[in-house]
């Protein structure tokens, strides 16, 4: 009997400690502030989407206690798990790396902004969990992998026609144009790359991973930040000055556009030195008049698309200008890509604009 009483007492004590720990994490991760902001948003706007607040137990069950076999992606900002909620809804659960407690306010703003983005080409944020040591974000699950996987796998790449590639480019450009020009406050993604562009079964682009994103205050056009991003895609001007602007996303998109044209990786140390950086190799090849020597064989099938390819290459070249001021805006890029697709009778995406 004594052992039973001791066991109950120990279990109750552990349960209290666990509840106190969850409450502590919830407060440290800005849970109370987030709930208040959501309440204000609901009162002030009928367009505010509901942000689901998941419990730690729900997401542990969904991922089989974050089983390594459920890992579907890893990056500099966290690990993504495939999860199954109670209603059998399949979700992607992103477990962040340790968060800087000084950035909680910005994290809350980011969750609120992303929860209100209603764009068919952005992976939808379903909710979050704040009662764990690091915040957990829950997204819709996109089933067909990343653009990178499709571009750099020979078999999959053969299925990516020029029409599909240009549609993916136009849809991605449309997202960035929306984030920069229509979202309030504007959002700089800061880590645009082919790994962060997911594809669904119909090859519709879904931009993901806003872990490095930054909200731009209304009175600023650039932000001083610690340089973050991915080598091969990183804006050289941002790398030198630490001044983050919307044009940093433009440069990264330019690299993705060249990936779509060439099928080559943004950075590859197995290639000869002059070819390791795709952006530099592309610029050099275009300047020498060797554009068609570096294009992916899967899209250079006849002379009929030569003009189309040249026009897209010109856009990529402008995006990759060393000076940010010399690059176009994403709004201009999106419009130009749509124009190219229209001229060459490519089927247009259902929408590359904000869907209210």
Structure description:
With 356 residues, this protein is α+β, with helices and mostly antiparallel strands. A hairpin with a 2-residue loop joins strand 2 and strand 3.
The number of domains is: 2
Report the CATH superfamily of the largest domain.
Transferase(Phosphotransferase) domain 1
Number of helices: 13
Could you give the distance between the termini? Answer: 64 Å
Shape: elongated
In sequence order, what are the helices and strands, one letter per element? HHEHEEEHEEHHHEEEEEHEHHHHH
CATH class of the largest domain: Mainly Alpha
Proportion of beta-strand residues: 5-15%
Q: Radius of gyration from the CA trace? A: 23 Å
Structural class, from helix and strand content? alpha+beta
């Amino acid at each position: 009997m004594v052992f039973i009483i001791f066991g109950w007492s120990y279990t109750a004590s552990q349960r209290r400690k666990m509840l106190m720990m969850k409450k502590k994490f919830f407060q440290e991760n800005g849970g109370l502030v987030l709930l208040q902001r959501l309440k204000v948003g609901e009162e002030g706007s009928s367009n505010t989407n509901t942000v689901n607040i998941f419990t730690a137990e729900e997401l542990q069950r969904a991922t089989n206690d974050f089983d390594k076999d459920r890992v579907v992606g890893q990056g500099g900002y966290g690990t993504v798990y495939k999860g199954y909620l109670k209603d059998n809804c399949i979700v992607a659960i992103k477990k962040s790396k340790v968060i800087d407690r000084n950035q909680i306010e910005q994290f809350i703003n980011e969750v609120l902004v992303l929860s209100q983005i209603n764009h068919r080409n952005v992976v939808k944020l379903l909710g979050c969990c704040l009662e764990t040591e690091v915040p957990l974000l829950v997204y819709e699950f996109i089933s067909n992998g990343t653009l990178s996987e499709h571009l750099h796998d020979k078999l999959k790449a053969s299925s990516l026609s020029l029409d599909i590639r240009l549609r993916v480019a136009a849809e991605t450009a449309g997202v960035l144009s929306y984030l920069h020009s229509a979202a309030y406050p504007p959002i700089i993604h800061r880590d645009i790359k082919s790994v962060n562009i997911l594809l669904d079964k119909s090859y519709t682009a879904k931009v993901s991973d806003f872990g490095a994103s930054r909200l731009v205050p209304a009175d600023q056009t650039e932000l001083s930040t610690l340089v973050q991003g991915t080598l091969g895609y990183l804006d050289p001007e941002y790398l030198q000055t630490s001044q983050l602007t919307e044009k940093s996303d433009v440069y990264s998109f330019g690299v993705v556009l060249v990936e779509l044209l060439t099928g080559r990786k943004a950075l590859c140390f197995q290639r000869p030195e002059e070819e390791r950086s795709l952006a530099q190799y592309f610029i050099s090849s275009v300047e020498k008049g060797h554009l068609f020597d570096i294009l992916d064989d899967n899209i250079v099938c006849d002379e009929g698309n030569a003009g189309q390819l040249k026009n897209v290459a010109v856009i990529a070249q402008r995006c990759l200008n060393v000076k940010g001021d010399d690059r176009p805006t994403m709004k201009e890029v999106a419009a130009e890509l749509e124009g190219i697709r229209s001229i060459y009778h490519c089927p247009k995406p259902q929408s590359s604009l904000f869907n209210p």
